[in-house]
Amino acid sequence: MLRTVAPPPRSPARPARAADPDRRRTSARTVLRCVLEHGPVARSTIARLTGLSPASVTDHCARLTELGLVREATAPRRSGGVGRPHLPLDLDGSGLVVGGVHVAVPYTTVALLDLRGRVVAERRLPHPDTDPVRVLERAAGGLADLLERVPERRPLGVGFASGGWVDRAAGTVVDHPLLGWREVPAREVLRARTGLPVHVDGHARALADAERLFGRAGGSALHLFAGNIVDAAFATRDEVHHGPRSQAGAIAHLPLVGGAERCPCGRTGCLQAELSERTLCRRAREAGVCDGRDPLHVVDAAAAGHPVAARLLRERARMVGRAVGLLTDVLNPESVIVTEIGVIHRPDCLAALRGELAPARAATVTPTSFPESVLAVAGGAVALDVLYRDPLSASPERI
Question: What is the pLDDT of residue 87?
């Protein structure tokens, strides 16, 4: 009888090749993040820090240079020995920007940011009305105006951020109660008006990403945003938690101990009702501190020596501290970053916030890393987060 010989097993080469693009993207991301964190940095140092082979680092650096994301630093770094000096790499800050759009209740902020999250240009557009399409069309026009002022820059894409419930995957503002927006296709409208890739997210998560990339956040971090909208985000070193349909961080109706403000939901002491800038402005107006239209007017009055203005800001900061205590009891982050107008501008407000916490926890609380440009950074950070996750997808275009 003839013996039947089983065919040899199929080579695993095809699955390996299929996985190569993902591996290549992961390695490129690792290299770009290393340049962001350590640049100017030599290729040999990148290889040592990342664990990638020198040949792989050289290949990825060449591709990132072609895309305009990195460049060789102007001054070579000598190794101390003989031979060719090291040519360290740094981010290329000369040619590329991302657009940022942040929609607040009274106005929209449009901005251009460089690859390190620094604001290149910024403009504030008051809302004549809150019709979502008109607001977004004006934002697109504002971005185009900013780009005309820097013709040497090429836009990679646009990031959009706002308060309320923003679904990152769908590209929609699902619910912004103070603007009255429901299921607004922000990504679709901005993409149609700009011709650029558009990415959307909630502003608390966007700022958590900004802190993770360019600011103070390391390890796990809680970010609390207290503006007209009050929300939060929780981040690890490489990820901000979104949850199903990006609903994570919706804390507006958490009960706040000591809160006496009536909420539109019918209850008393909801976190957003107590901490909203609208509440601060109303209390300042009732106390005769200022006209009560802009929370910065309360800060200005306190700086000018108005004792009631300073007291209102400290009281609000103490309530923010209670909110921080509530959230950190659940999440136990390594650091806490707070975006709140009093904490940003006044050391006594930061002290009042920390005074509501145990000393060990109080020491982990810091204000936002972007005090002068927080809303501009929020919008741009949405696009920059996407870039640093997949730099090989970068494709500069012109609005």
Answer: 81
Phi–psi pair at 11, nearest 5 degrees: -70, 140
Residues 6+ apart with CB under 8 A from 65: 71, 72, 92
pLDDT at 192: 97
Reported as a single tens digit per residue, the pLDDT across 182-220 is 999 999 999 999 999 999 999 999 999 999 999 988 789
The residues, any chain, with a CB within 8 Å of residue 30's CB and separated by 6 or more, are 50, 52
User: What pLDDT was estimated at residue 279?
Assistant: 96
- pTM comes to 0.90
- Residues 277-289: pLDDT tens digits? 999 999 999 999 9
pLDDT in tens, 290-335: 887 899 999 999 999 999 999 999 999 999 999 999 999 999 999 9
126: β partners: 107
SS3 per residue for the chain: CCCCCCCCCCCCHHHHHHHHHHHHHHHHHHHHHHHHHHCCECHHHHHHHHCCCHHHHHHHHHHHHHCCCEEECCCCECCCCCCCCECCEEECCCCEEEEEEEECCCEEEEEEECCCCCEEEEEEEECCCCCHHHHHHHHHHHHHHHHHHCCCCEEEEEEEEECCEEECCCCEEEEECCCCEEEECHHHHHHHHHCCCEEEEEHHHHHHHHHHHHCCCCCCEEEEEECCCEEEEEECCCCECCCHHHCCCCCCCCECCCCCCECCCCCECEHHHHHCHHHHHHHHHHCCCCCCCCHHHHHHHHHCCCHHHHHHHHHHHHHHHHHHHHHHHHHCCCEEEEEEHHHHHCHHHHHHHHCCCCHHHHCCEEECCCCCCHHHHHHHHHHHHHHHHCHHHCCCCCC
pLDDT at 11: 42
Token pair for residue 335?
A: 């650091």
